[in-house]
Amino acid sequence: MPIKSYLAHPEEGQKEALIAALSKIDHCDVIPSENKDLLIVVTDTENKTDDEKVKESIEAIESLKLLAMVSGFNTPKNN
């Protein structure tokens, strides 16, 4: 299960639009910064294919200026 965290910088004046767009993506949680024009994005997917689809969806958002991965790791699935 890939779990990754990112810092997302919105285009100027587009923070709320970016929050709304990110909130619509499955397996994606958004935490807005209270004192900066910055969002914390955490993704949690079942496999690498889903992880890549989520990242592509995030990068396609027009109100996104820059996406920087902070950390990422893959945990084995327990049965």
Description:
By secondary structure, the protein is an alpha+beta fold. Helices cover 27% and strands 39% of the residues. A four-stranded antiparallel beta sheet has the order 2-3-1-4, covered by helices on one side.
Structure in a nutshell:
With 79 residues, the chain is α+β, with helices and mostly antiparallel strands.
* Mean pLDDT over the full residue set: 92
- H and E order: EHEEHE
Instruction: Round the Cα radius of gyration to an integer and report it.
Output: 13 Å
Taken as a percent bin, the fraction of beta residues is 35-45%
Count of extended strands: 4
- The SS-based structural class is alpha+beta
Secondary-structure topology with pairs:
Layout: E1 2-10, H1 15-23, E2 28-32, E3 39-44, H2 48-59, E4 64-74
Antiparallel strand pairs: 1-3, 1-4, 2-3
Notable features of this structure?
79 residues, alpha+beta, 4 strands
